[in-house]
Amino acid sequence: MAAKNACLPERELFIASGCLQCAGNSESCCAESYVPLTIADVDAILELGYPLEEAAQAGEYYEEYLDDTEPWWRASMTEMEGRLFRVTTRKNERAQCVFLREGEGCVLGANRPRVCKIYPFWVDESGAIIVEPGEEECCNIAAGAVPVERGIRMIDESPESILEYYRDIQRDCQENGARHRELLARLLEKKEAGAV
């Protein structure tokens, strides 16, 4: 989808200055990992003209990867048929986010998901911005041991915007469970219908 879609207008691509070196890597935040979406993210993507089924998927999460997460993040997972799901960006045949234009950046531009806007950062229990633990393998900023303030500038954000997007993610997890469940049911139904 992200490669070409004649029905959608061409938008300015986004790639943070600090992400230029990762843009073509086979494993990065845009490849081989899930990009979880808030309801506001989904709505913004749909407003751009992308159909839900082409833009998103039911990303399956495994219990062992949720052991050390915040209770509100764990509670935001939707259990269906004994499995845990969250709405994520769809992956292409190379396991990359469908919105990634290889070597160039994200076709969503300013409308990219909130988790993308704050990556590789997170906010700890005390409210401090930190490098998300475990992201050193996927992100050169996280692996480079640069000070948080410099890393934030490298992703073209500010401490205030990181905190705002983080609060948006947290609020979405706490308040939008029913809408996530509805979207996941739709995505899983479509996936099952396509597999038959």
Describe the overall structure.
By secondary structure, the protein is α+β, with helices and mostly antiparallel strands. It has one domain. 36% of the residues lie in helices and 13% in strands. The chain contains eight helices and seven strands; from the N terminus they run H-H-E-H-E-E-E-E-H-E-E-H-H-H-H. The strands form three sheets. It has a three-stranded antiparallel β-sheet with strand order 1-3-2. Strands 4-5 form a two-stranded antiparallel sheet. The longest helix has 19 residues, at 177-195. The protein is globular and about 50 Å long. Residues 1-9 have low confidence and may be disordered.
Please render the helix and strand layout as text.
Blueprint: H1 39-47, H2 52-55, E1 56-61, H3 71-75, E2 78-80, E3 83-89, E4 100-101, E5 105-106, H4 114-118, E6 121-123, E7 129-131, H5 140-143, H6 148-154, H7 159-175, H8 177-195
Antiparallel strand pairs: 1-3, 2-3, 4-5, 6-7
